Amino acid sequence: MDLHQQFDLRHVINACGKMTKLCGSIVLPEIIDVVNESMRHFFLLDEIQLAAGKLIRQASGSEAGCITACTSAGITLSVAATMTGNNLARVLQLPDTSGLPTRVLIQKGHCVNYGAPITQAIRLTGAEPIEVGSVNNCSRDELLHQLQQPGVASIVAVESHHTVRHGWVALPDVIEMAHAVNVPVIVDGAAQDQRLRELIEYGSDLVITSAHKYLCATTAGIVAGRQDLIDAVYLQNRGIGRGMKAGKESIFGAMAALQFRLQQDMAAWTSEQDRKVEKILHRLKDTPGLALAVDSDPNGCPFSRVRLTPAPGTSGHSARSLAKNLENGNPIIVVRAHHLEEGYFHLDAIEMTDDEIELVCERIQSALSRDS
């Protein structure tokens, strides 16, 4: 079955990474088999969520876990959980927040847009996001002052390359300060599933990560954390979370992914990513007007990406024009373009086959030689 031909869709080579705009990831065959089997049967939704919770505990070291529609949904439901607790009347009251704690703190440098503003995910509950500090600086004193104000429901921390990378209070310190005044910490770790156990070990109260990024599953959000708060997250399905609930295909996909991760040889996986990086470097090393480098994942996940910096004077292309050139035609080549204004972009090899790497390198060399 050729879906591209059937629906007149262009082929995409993903040199960008695990991005929602590119539909997440290629789902592993082992996960597809489980999801396909789940589609043949009925289940009690609460029972499969309990089964998923057991796997989340095993994979993360958390007290409990549940599955949501996606990480964005998980952020909203986690914020709501810290406002309502396990009181169904309060759950049914939202987004009316009368009598509830409504202040949700977030460092201003964490106010990212992941396709929508994270502050909007907070506001969906009826809560008020309180941005602490300035874009490039948040002091411990500022954060402590806000933590000590009345009506604080929780603090949201973002673990992502999109955040400001300096001048902020690091997650372990945030947790220590928040717990000193009994404020729970919610961590948006959408692309940090490889660090899930680490984030829980810091003492995070709730951590949300995506099943459809490095876990290579169907679209879902995995929420791990304290038993009472997980129960409150799940209880939101009877209120504002009804439209954010996960179906069986999402839950079984996440479960199969967690089972796969528990037995996965991560050292071997990293070695394979290193091999692909070396292949790109070898293929492009003699390209005139193109500087190459290797950048480790900024959040500490075990892989690297290739940085490409074209010299406009000799290559005929800026980073922006070269990235645009690669997007023309069929297949489309989508690079990791977060740093175009700084004169470079990355090739993320994780979702590329060797043949695709070869084609991407050919297209880059062709564009530079033609336009130089």
Description:
- The chain is an alpha/beta fold and 372 residues long.
- The protein folds into 2 domains: 3-21 and 266-371, Alpha-Beta Complex (Aspartate Aminotransferase, domain 1), CATH 3.90.1150.180; 42-263, Type I PLP-dependent aspartate aminotransferase-like (Major domain) (Aspartate Aminotransferase, domain 2), CATH 3.40.640.10.
- It is 42% helix and 16% strand.
- The protein contains 15 helices and 12 strands.
- A 7-stranded mixed beta sheet has the order 2-8-7-6-5-3-4, with helices on both faces.
- α9 links the parallel β6 (185-188) and β7 (206-210).
- α12 runs parallel beside α15 (354-371).
Short key terms for the protein model shown above:
single chain; 372 residues; alpha/beta; Aspartate Aminotransferase, domain 1; Aspartate Aminotransferase, domain 2; 2 domains; 7-stranded mixed β-sheet; 3-stranded antiparallel β-sheet; 15 helices; globular
Please tell me the overall pLDDT. 95
Order of helices and strands: HEHHEHHEHEHEHEHEEHHHEEHHEEH
- Helical amount: 40-55%
Number of strands: 12
Q: Tell me what portion of residues adopts beta-strand conformation.
A: 15-25%
Structural class: alpha/beta
The CATH class assignment of the largest domain is Alpha Beta
Quick gist of this model?
The chain has 372 residues and is α/β, with parallel strands linked by helices.
Topology, please?
Layout: H1 3-6, E1 12-15, H2 29-38, H3 45-60, E2 64-68, H4 71-84, H5 88-93, E3 103-107, H6 118-123, E4 128-132, H7 140-147, E5 152-158, H8 171-180, E6 185-188, H9 196-201, E7 206-210, E8 221-225, H10 227-235, H11 248-263, H12 266-284, E9 290-296, E10 304-310, H13 312-315, H14 319-327, E11 332-335, E12 345-347, H15 354-371
Parallel strand pairs: 1-11, 3-4, 3-5, 5-6, 6-7
Antiparallel strand pairs: 2-8, 7-8, 9-10, 10-12
